[in-house]
Here is the input.
Amino acid sequence: MSSTTPTHNYYLPEPSHYPVVGSVALLLMLGGMALWFNGLAFGQWSTLAGLAVLIYMMKIWFGKVIEESEGGLYTKRVDVSFRWSMGWFIFSEVMFFAAFFGALFYARLYSVPELGAVDQKLLWPEFNSAWPTAGPNAMDAFTPMGAWGVPAINTLLLLTSGVTLTVAHFGMLENNRGKLNLWLGLTIALGVIFLGFQAYEYSHAYSELNLKLTSGIYGTTFYLLTGFHGFHVTVGTIMLIVVWVRCLKGHFTADHHFAFEGVAWYWHFVDVVWLFLFIFVYWF
Amino acid sequence: MSAVIDSHGTSHGHDDHHDHGAPAGLMRWVTTTNHKDIGSMYLWFSFVMFLVGGVMALTIRAELFQPGLQIVRPEFFNTMTTYHGLIMVFGAIMPAFVGFANYLIPLMIGAPDMAFPRMNNWSFWLLPPAAILLIGSFFAPGGAAGVGWTMYAPLTSQMGPGMDLTIFAVHILGMSSIMGSINIVTTILNMRCPGMTLMKMPMFVWTWLITAYLLIATMPVLAGAVTMTLTDRHFGTSFFNAAGGGDPVLYQHIFWFFGHPEVYIIAIPAFGVVSQVIPAFSRKPLFGYASMVYATSSIAILSFIVWAHHMYTVGMPVAGQLYYMYATMLIAVPTGVKVFNWVATMWKGSLSFETPMLFALGFLFLFTLGGFTGLVLSMTPVDVQLHDTYYVVAHFHYVMVAGALFSAFAGVYYWLPKWTGRMYDETLGKWHFWLSIIFFNVTFFVQHFLGLAGMPRRIPDYHTQFTEFNVISSIGAFGFGLSQLLFLYIVLKALRSGEKAADKQWDGADTLEWTHLPTPMPYHTFENPPTIK
Ligand SMILES: [Cu+2]
Here is the structure.
């Protein structure tokens, strides 16, 4: 038997120290955040150290996976495993967003109308329960974010990025590397522009609309939903950049490029979440 | 190499492969990517957490031994009920069944390992940091959070840093569960050996496929709920704050959307273990295999649409109460199918009553009893009376302890010979069973009466009229707790000096780990998959 070829039809990795490094990182980071949020000593330093270790761990772990993939260790069956797992991971993300959309719908359909109902009049006689609202105890007025300015442009950007990503995928399938690299680069550019607009929108909201995270239930749902979405776009953009760099290095073939497809699925998922955001947070 | 049939682990090629670069000592366990190692670690971790949560339970029972305040301050009593619940649910019962899943699923479907061995390692090694954060919250300024394991708003908004440590512990536990579940689903769907169709899989594998789906669907929702709690606490959001247009009841809806399926996340793998043990000791195949699969799936689907039966008393329209009442009662139908099938499996079987079978039968009787009290509680007018009384405590301990925990014991006794190559002491095992089942009922049966008489839960003091039953319950609890040390002794004794176990220790066992593998098993199994007819 040769010790260089795998002895089984499914690649099983050697013992690995990456996971425990990740665990220590999370302990430092989350334990540090608990201290930090309560103004206790060392909180932010522990958080930053944990974050740095976590990023380092992800770099070496994913680096190892890329090395194994390019080394031909991943058979078709391993590829199928990656596909199932990415699908289920995205499903878990869908459920995470479902919780926050659930909170939005609950506030709009139940809690806000209830607070304006006749049996609450004794407590808050002035409260007008029309959406958007910062609640019966709102201190200062705010202007809600309109749908047809920056958000509409952002919708266009993300929808376009879905198309450019698909064109890049065709480039991959046709073995046309120029097409792949160009359109994937364009997709990344669209993602970055989206994030820029999102940052502009937040600063506009804070400085001109007086719309803050503390602006009652409207500000709460607005910032948490768009914020978590923006975080996912950021992660998606980073993943696209990693895949792009790999494409430029000549990784992947027309029939072996799960990393590309997995990131593409994730990108489309983020795209769909945005459509729901646009409809239910900005528009109606 | 690959031509060598190595289900007996005799090929040195393999040994080379595994010894090569594998660290020894503690680092072996830290870095392992082997599903058997990881399964063992899950089981040991869960047992340690079981003892930690058990000490908290005994603190509660010691305080409740007499009316009046004797041992702990009320605030500390609240932290005991909170962390007893959190640790038993997330630290003891769930990891125990994930341990079974890790150890057994690859063996039962003829796979060389889990689909993602490194991620499998991380799923386990996320648990110790979570445990450190949970237990560390006791040392935070202001102490741990006495909010109940359900962590209801707005009480959670008023707690100290211990609350944040707990929230982050829940985040880590959620990550662990989601990664573990994705691994399990992928393994089951993609790693079955030739011929192992879905409907030929052992029932235990089916139950984990369904459980993993429940986990992937609900753990992110729990993460969302505690994230909202965190932002409400520190960043001025208004999810659960009526003054800002939110609602504390919203927390309960989101929590129980996770919380009710969580009940089945715990119960369904327990069903799976029992569905292996009862046929083995009846020497008959499982009765109604297909109906078992469909019944389990139905339970899982129904579990998503009944959550507000935990919230009858917070205020709900009558139409809502009726809907949640009937939907909840509907779950009794597939559950009844399962109980019927287990009984029918034993019907005219060639029964024998070794320890695993005893625990499985204990499960069958007492879980069914817990199911019946659940049916009682599903009725809105009854629940309005019994909500937050000891009747509820009795109900869910019948399901969690006599249900899930007894099933886990059945599983450990059943597979211990295969895992370790050594038999446990049958006489001591029977002692463990009888002590457990008697003390369990002494502890919890009387709590039904306390609840019906109106004793509220989570309160360190009570009216003198409740004294007698509380004394009985506390005596039972200490007896039950001490009996579990016997379990530890039995396992250690088997490891040290148990008799050698046979390849197929139980003559009624028919899954691949018994029929295709030697005892003790080699470190790597099924590197070349078997073929099933
Ligand atoms: Cu429930």
